[in-house]
Amino acid sequence: MPKKLQEKIKKALIREPRYHNRVYEKRATIDGILIVGCSQDAEECQAKFIEQLTKFLSAQRDENGNTHEFTSTTMSVLFSEFATRWFENVHKIKVTEGTYYDDHSTFWKRVIPVFGDRRLRSITSADCIDLISDLLATGHTRMTEHCDGLLRQVFDYAVNSELIPKNPMNAFKRVKSERENGVPLTQEEEREFLKALEGTKYEMRYVVALYTGVRPCEISSIRIDGEFIVSQNRKQKNQKRIVYKKIPITPMLRPYLPKLREALQNWEELTSHSESFYRDEFRRRCPGQHTPYDLRTTFATRCQECGASEQAVQAWMGHAPNSILAKVYTKLSDGYLLSEGKKVKY
Question: Is residue 205 domain-shared with residue 327, that is, in the same domain?
Fold first, then answer.
């Protein structure tokens, strides 16, 4: 093996994995070949990297001329191949299963048919502008914004992996769709919704969202802890440690506790589908033009209508306080949160 190649491999093995967005990642480009190992555990990341490096070395020693995954040069890497690698090795680790499914489905339906068979390095800014323009022409701005964001991440990863010199998406501004604030259900709509849910398989998933205000992506993490519902706060998902929030079991949720305890025994199955699946389930039962996120808006609205303090509602919703005083020095006690939670009765 050439001495220069030995030195590159030695440096790659010594280098510590990089920690970013709760994921350990170790990569190296040797002779134009990208070698990557990713995991939420540092040792597993190193092991995956060594496994890929071993495959690379085996390919180098192949005397029969057989092709191998790592024998393609940077010039010949297909966009679909690299996108698959990013989705599997990077994106899948950082997001929930449902989000991964939705992102992958959208990307393969809208982007891969256009760029899939193209060489990664051959895709220009003009190509990207044409794709985004065609997607905008469909009238689905939110979907276009979604594809825009995923494309930028794939190309950024290609830049960091030294496969392309720059991100072709950076030549133009990001697509931004107009955000509409959620619309809370009226109390009449809430009663109709609960009646339509009664006895259905996913009843408690929506009841939890309505009476705790947890985000759709947080529902899978909930558990009962005494007088509280505890869930992961995904608003702070980029921190190295997982942050949890506590929502008191209000008088509105308490009658459902026996059903909730039973449902939690099979909670993983009840919350493992894609967001589009639960969105369709929701629309079949909820009156009016509402979305599942409106249940969170409804909870926040009812809490304030019932007189719960803004600081308590902020804590339940998982929002960071506005002031430095509240953010750094104010720690609300369980007793205070429970007393405020008792007010949420209507």
Answer: yes
